[in-house]
Amino acid sequence: MNKEKVSILWFRQDLRLKDNPALNALAGSGHLLPIYILDDENAGEFKMGGASRYWLHKSLDRLNASLDSKLNFYSGRAEDIIEQLITNYDVQEIFWNRCYEPWRMKRDKKIKDLLKKNQIEAKSFKSDLLWEPWEVLKDDGAPYRVYSAYYKRLLKNTKLIRSPETKKIKSSLIKDKRSVGLDELKLFPDINWYTDMDKQWQPGEKGAHKNFKKFLDSGIKNYKEGRDFPKLESVSRLSPHLHFGEISVAEIWHHIRNNYTDKNAGHFLKEIAWREFSYLLLYHFPQLPKKNLQEKFDNFPWKSKNKKQFDAWKKGNTGYPIVDAGMRELWQTGYMHNRVRMIVGSFLVKNLLMHWRHGERWFWDCLLDADLANNSASWQWVAGSGADAAPYFRIFNPILQGERFDKDGDYVKKYCPELKELPNKYIHKPFEAPMDVLLEADVKLGENYPHPIVNLGESRDAALDAYEEIKGK
DNA sequence: TGAAATGTTGGGGCG
DNA sequence: ACGCCCCAACATTTC
Fold first, then answer.
1. Is A273's CB less than 7 Å from nucleic acid strand B?
2. pLDDT tens digits, residue range A333-363?
3. Active-site residue A271, yes or no?
4. CATH 3.40.50.620 domain extents, chain A
5. How much is the pTM?
6. Cβ–Cβ < 8 Å for A324, A409
7. Percent of chain A having pLDDT more than 90?
8. Residue A430 to residues A108, A434, A441: CA-CA distances in angstroms?
9. What is the CATH number of domain A129-162+205-284?
10. Which of A103, A338, A403, A421 is catalytic?
11. Which nucleotide is at minimal CA–C1' distance from A402?
12. Helix (H) or strand (E) holding A473
């Protein structure tokens, strides 16, 4: 029996048609079989969290639509799925864009070997990073550990950045009858916690470009200062789109470099480069998601039993409004403003003395933009155990941070509506408000809003004492 | 991409 | 008029 000749395009974290190198390379092939594989088994403990699955479902749905509903879905170990495909079809070649998570790299290498053994051409492309983790290193060949030095070096290597290119697909797209339906991937969570996400986000390539355009039209003009104020719309909100590759980072880079020269645009590119830095760290320190980059933190006396406080943190019931607003924003919308991420992170690691891994796991499950490299590098940054990290003794005071970056309490009031009648003076410290003010605002501490779960001064001192134990080791 | 403690300065009140 | 004290306001140091 004659098997059908096909070329396979394997979509992974590159759910777009624009500027997609693997797709470009196959756009002229005769019969193109586009596939997506949900591979929880190989991912193990780093399989996608709930929020990511919600996003992925929507994004795949839209990608499928833009491929005339010819996207093929599979669930299982990628090597098994691909083995089936090369059995069922006369596969000419399999192309994909590279991913950099340790488990994916290991798996992809195995698959490349399998294909080589079967004399099928397998090719992977640089697509979703500006610089691959092995492309920019120190003179001695070691990876950078200091961001500013790394960035300086990056700017000398902008020629390594791909030029965006989009090719029209001329192939006829093949639907595999063994493909399962998107719904059968069961990506939607059982509980209905994504209603607010629908209002705020449009997963997929179109939504990605919409957010980019919106950012260019307004947010970027005041990015450098505005990005610190959660109520302003001065951030790009591109993180989930970038994570799933719905927009090409090379396209973003070139567009901004060619059209903007001010400090705001410059600062945004720096943030894009932090993403690159996270990937550099993850690639060269594959243990980044689990192990402290600075080993002295292995001896840090984290509190092991702190379930009650941890639950209060997760649910946004710490009694510190800026922290609670952030944690509730995360739960309700799958997103949290970056400034607030730093505040809630500092609070968990320093005021509650909990290991950053607990925060990393919670974010992993709740964030639409959950990304192994960014999430682990950022938690280590907050905890002080990472590369070029915030020094441990830099402990955020949630009251002062609130007063500085959410002066009128607008952000707090949005996510903690029970505080909305409090005067600004007390919006970040309801526990200091006089009885009559609380009464007037209908805030009943311990009833409709919690008492603070820790004392800031005492917990700060405890954190500094704990740090003293590992300092200089 | 902090905060708190400590140090310094300079103006004004007051004896 | 002068010195002394107080204390913002700002700067520096320390954690």
1. no
2. 999 999 999 999 999 999 999 999 999 999 9
3. yes
4. 5-126
5. 0.95
6. no
7. 92
8. 53, 9, 10
9. 1.25.40.80
10. A338
11. B2
12. none
